[in-house]
Design a protein that fits this description.
The chain has helices at residues 12-22, 42-50, 74-81, 104-112; strands spanning 5-7, 26-30, 36-41, 68-69, 88-92, 98-103, 135-138, 141-148, 152-159, 167-169, 173-181, 184-188, 191-195, 200-203, 209-213, 219-227, 236-239. It has 247 residues and is of the alpha+beta class. It starts with a strand and ends in an 8-residue tail after the last strand.
């Protein structure tokens, strides 16, 4: 946690250098005994500079802050992070010594990956990119992955009116679809059927399938992939409206 803590006697420049290193936009301020005495964010530092402070001036910091005791339970951290303004929390022992820290995103990752709750966990080891994906444009619409872990991936998929996914299958994963909005037609193996909001579809491995938007509105569905590999190269296309090759 060296890059996330700074001594209370440090300068504004010291804080800027440390924040530039940790890439998290905040610091925990400690005294010589490693006890937490405050917090500071990059926004706090910008406000100091706008007020005319110099980089060589002693750092001013917020002495009123929220924190976790290492014995606190799950309910308390939920309640603290439910505040929109709380994006990180130092974890302290009974003497206010800094023993850990956790960000809101790390907390979400911990829960979504079903990792056992423990305030002694090395939260900095969590890959925050597993819940931070861009929207991917496709000729039929777009999708956004919401989480990717070792054993599953979830997506929200939108198919524009009149468009359709390719007829495809997967060797390494099964899929579970739940229709959220719109109206579609699913081809699954040798059968086809209409789908609507609330409809659930199970797609086993190595079964050909596709979905077509047959309504006037966007067709939106949630897709959960279960398996051990979720790469786009596990898409085996048998036919495609847009003349794409596999993956």
């Amino acid at each position: 946690m060296l890059n996330f803590a700074i001594n209370e006697s440090s300068t504004i420049l010291d804080a800027l250098v440390r924040i530039n290193t940790n890439k998290k936009n905040f610091l925990i301020v400690v005294n010589d005994l490693n006890c937490v005495v405050g917090i500071v964010t990059d926004g706090d530092i910008r406000r100091l500079l706008l007020k005319g402070f110099n980089l060589s001036d002693k750092l001013f910091f917020n002495k009123e802050f929220k924190y976790l005791n290492k014995t606190d339970g799950f309910d308390r951290i939920c309640n603290l992070f439910n505040n929109d303004k709380t994006n990180f929390l130092p974890v302290c022992d009974d003497t206010m010594a800094l023993v850990n820290l956790i960000t809101k995103k790390q907390f979400h990752i911990l829960l979504l990956h079903n990792i056992e709750w423990n305030l002694e966990y090395d939260f900095l080891s969590l890959d925050e990119n597993t819940v931070d994906y861009d929207v991917q444009s496709k000729p039929w619409g777009f999708y956004k992955s919401t989480i990717l872990s070792q054993h599953f991936q979830s997506k929200i998929i939108t198919v524009f009116p009149g468009e359709e996914l390719s007829l495809q299958e997967h060797k390494e994963r099964e899929e579970h679809w739940i229709i959220i909005g719109g109206k579609g037609k699913v081809i699954l193996g040798g059968s086809s059927f209409d789908v609507f909001p609330g409809k659930y579809i199970f797609i086993p491995k190595e079964v050909k399938h596709k979905i077509i938007n047959i309504g006037p509105e966007n067709l939106v569905f949630s897709e959960i992939q279960l398996g051990k590999y979720f790469g786009e190269d596990d898409i085996i296309r048998h036919s495609d409206k847009y003349n794409r090759n596999n993956s």
